[in-house]
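Hi C.,

You asked whether I'd gotten around to modeling the 75-residue construct. I have! Everything is below, sequence then structure, no commentary in between.
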Amino acid sequence: MTDAFHPGTIDVVRQRLERRFPDLDPAVVEAAVRLAVRTYTTSNRAVSARTVELAARDRLSFADRPTPTEVRPGA
C-alpha cells in the first residue's frame, strides 16, 4: 500500500475489518484501509496501524447501515 507500513500489518488490519463487516465486499474494506493509510501518511509518517484501523472502521460503519426499507433480523 505504502512504504510507511509493513504490508503484513495492513493485511492484519484489513482482515480484522473484513471480519467486523462481513456483509461488505472485501474490495470496499480494502479501499477504506487504503484511503485511511493515504490520509494519514501524507501528514504524519509515524501513524500507527491502530489509527488506520479506526479511521477505516469509521468509514465502513456508514457503508454497513441498513437502508430505510431494510430490516435486519432481531432489530
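If it helps when you're writing up: The chain has one domain: 7-63.

Thanks,
B.
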